[in-house]
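I had to read the description of the data format several times before I understood it. The format is easy to grasp once an entry is in front of the reader. For illustration, here is how one protein appears when written out as sequence plus structure tokens:
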Amino acid sequence: MNLTLLQELYLGSNNLSGYIPKEIGALTNLVGLDLSINNLSGYIPKEIGALTNLVGNIPKEISVLANLQTLDMGYNNFSGPVPSEIRNLTMLQWLDLRNNMLSDKDMEIVATFHYTLTLKIV
């Protein structure tokens, strides 16, 4: 089955388990992806970085990823604001939000981080 033209994939609350397959990176026309409220495990495949058309807000639920060290959401169409809960990601070392639809006002929360963080916003 060829799903390369798929634009929205909403699999939230489906009790999915296992890992996110690397083939998700082939869905380059996705503008919406929801994998929330499942039992997914393992690593997030680097191929997910090919999804450069995602749009919408960054969800506050991102804060449950307590051990997240790298978050690269650059080159998409995310709009703000960046949720204040993102400050709870105390293991985060790299945050890339560049080339999105985020204004300076949307980014205000990022200035309040209390730990060392490499930040790409321009």
Remarks:
- The mean pLDDT is 86.
